[in-house]
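Throughout our pipeline, every protein is held as a single compact record rather than as scattered files. The record that follows is passed on verbatim for readers who wish to inspect the format.
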Amino acid sequence: VQYVESGGGLVQPGGSLKLSCAASGFAFSSYAMRWYRQCPGKEREWVATITTGGRSITYADSVKGRFTISRDNAKNTVYLQMNSLKPEDLAVYYCSVLPEWGWGQGTQVTVSS
């Protein structure tokens, strides 16, 4: 199993970023996918989940209404559109099926003026 996250960067508060995660080594379309993040000095936390066909989506309260998870099963890729970013969104973002399946290198998101 391999995950390659990308799309992170430096953005001002209120700005937007779209993260991508290309997955391989398993039947991507058969599994729900999740985004997680690890803020400095904190444990990794769950951010969002999307089911196999995208019909069921859930978000952590901290990002609800600002972030949108989506997926393209033809490309084995899951996305995270992040709007209205706040300084507390600063973190390394990861995708995974489940924590037990391991992690990629993540992508750094920095929100700062």
The mean pLDDT is 97. Residues 68 and 81 are 5 Å apart (CA to CA). Strands lie at 2-6, 9-11, 17-24, 33-38, 45-50, 57-59, 67-72, 77-82, 91-96, 107-111. The chain is about 0% helix and 50% strand.
